[in-house]
Design goal:
Protein name: Cell surface protein
Shape: rod-shaped
Keywords: Repeat, Ubl conjugation pathway
CATH architecture of one domain: 3 Solenoid
Structural class: mainly beta
Distance between the termini: 95 Å
CATH topology of one domain: Pectate Lyase C-like
Radius of gyration: 33 Å
Pfam families: NosD
InterPro entries: NosD_dom (IPR007742), Para_beta_helix_rpt-2 (IPR022441), PbH1 (IPR006626), Pectin_lyas_fold (IPR012334), Pectin_lyase_fold/virulence (IPR011050), SCF-Subunits/Alg-Epimerases (IPR051550)
CATH superfamily of one domain: Single-stranded right-handed beta-helix, Pectin lyase-like
Pathway: Protein modification; protein ubiquitination
Length: 561
Amino acid sequence: MGRFAVESIILLIAFCSLSQAATITVGEKGCDFYRIEAALDSANPDDVIEVHSGEYWVNLNITTPFLTLRGNDTGGGTPVLRAGSSTAEIERTSPGLTEMVEMSGGTAVAIRADFVTVESFVITGVTWPIPYDTGEHRDAIGHAGIKVYSDFNKIANNTFVGNDLTAIGLMNASNNQIIGNTIKDVSFGYAMNLYNSHANNIEKNTIVQNDWGIELQRSDSNTITENEICESANDGIWAVNSNYTMITENIISRNGIESKYEGNGKGISLVGSEGLIANNVISFNRDHGIYIQSIFWEYCSEPPCGAEESYENLVIGNRIQGNGRDGVRLEKTWRNNVIDNNITSNHGNGISFIQSHNNTADLNNVTRSDHGIFLDRSNYTKVNNNTIAEGEKTGILFWSTIGASAYNNTILDSPVGVSVEESSSGLAITENRIRNATEGMNISGGSRENQVTGNNVSSSDVGVILVGATRNLITGNVIFDSILGIVADFASRGNSIYGNDLSGNGEAARDEGDNLWDDGSRGNYYGPGSCADGDGVCEGSRSIPGGKNVDRFPLARRAGP
């Protein structure tokens, strides 16, 4: 082997030796340093700074990449990082310099390098710094327990307690992992606050009794999963202009109980945002369980209108219970899907669509709410395959809505099964099952040109009631075991009512208006009748009580599904 080759190998070994990660210890006795700042100054990439039990006053600024800052309980408890710097510590490091100003509060740890890990500390004392203008964190987030300005970092297994301001803040920071932290008692700020920070993972954190839970602003593609977010003074999760957010398998409960502000205390709030809300438990929050809203909608002529709009959200598989207002509420949003949720005992509606078009509510189980599913000026929305029970008011309510549909829903034990009100038109109410209602279906308030077909209504006071309704089609329905089958008031005109099975009711029909009870060849079935020619139509006409209306072609055989 030549001399040059030998020297090259020696240099390579020396380089590798120099580049090997070192473990630097910090503590009162027997350690490399007793100040964390000094350890940071001496550290190289890949080094581990191990901080022993004790309390450390810090305003750390980490600028070395691939660094691990780790707490180690050496018998005196988890190491505590207290935000600020004490005069006593300055005295120890620079004797005689007592004229230096003591600083308390501020940010405990600022991470400005990539691939940094901070784990296993108690972090406390984060407040506005004294003097107030000390520190450099005057941005959208402000001071925080740990403030991240960089990418691919990990914040894990820390406990944040006794802080006035935000525990964990991310500013222009992406692809970070925030895992297994406990955050409690943030009195003015957020447990976590992300601003312009993307593709971060927030997982398995316990967030309890803070001012706010998790806030995202202009932050896309973040994942919030398996966290417990409870007893915040305000909202549990609040996302503004943050798209492709995945909020899954969290427990979000009892938020907003102590809020000073009306409307705060939502479990999850998406404003001008788009994302997935799946398999969460959302319970006993002061306001809505899930709230999705567009912002600046009044300036929008043709939705969607960019980042200010909420649309194409998927709300699926959540258990939503006992919230102070609606279980799920969507305002001024489009093309959302609310699917397979269990929504029970909320103190408003189960699901509300307010000025929200082209949405779908499918396969939900909604019990014990005001209105099970409520559509207010929400056009072309589909309400399909839901089970709605024990409502205080209405199973499904359409209010001033155009072109929507209700198909194959089961509605039990509600005062009104389906209600069509306030000039709603072009609706398709098809193949629903309604049982034990005061009014099975109510069409009123100038509602017109709706189709009510193939429904099954039983054990109700009135199967279908029309009040001020015009030009609606009511056909192929089975109404039985009710006091009255179909009733129309004096202001209901031009409705076509035929092909329905009205047998088995106390009174089949009553009409004070001017409506059509047959289509010119067949009417409705009221019970067995004579049919000499075998065409299924009785030989004589049938007068409809209440006015001058006549079914000219009553059926001799059962009609409808």
